[in-house]
Amino acid sequence: MNVNRRGVLRAMFGSALGLGLAGLGTVSALWAIAVARFMTPNVTNQPPRTFNAGKPADYAEGCVETKYREGHGVWIVRQPHNGRSRIFALRTACTHLGCITLWQESRQQFRCPCHGSAFTKDGINVEGPAPRPLERCAIRIADDGRIEIDTGRTFCEDRGEWKEPESFVEA
Known about the structure:
elongated, Rieske Iron-sulfur Protein, 4-stranded antiparallel beta sheet, alpha+beta, 25% helix
């Protein structure tokens, strides 16, 4: 009877150990899959860097176009400069801490709701803690005559980059 008990005990502990190791392996594999899934993004919510913004004739002189604020993070402005009309795209991010600016038509200014910075229609900082003007995005007239804006390339006024031809288009 001792032999039978030992055989039963060996079978019971041997299989329990086997089951335990198999369970541990399964749980480890599931954790590895969960960690790998956690580390990969579900979706990319970023809009394309380059987008088409219509024709230059779509923009009235002295006006700020606000329809690209939400989707692309830019304001499009058409302003006279030295007797010629220019179109440029300003980033909506305040140069203080990156808050999204708001266009206030009544004041003709971009205002930062976070800390009170204000910028002229040209993007120049006029009040608040913002250390420099808004940044411009690269802009050009594509072969089809439409305005193409590249939000991945920016130009800073304080470095003299607003004079570069890629920072504005003549309209």
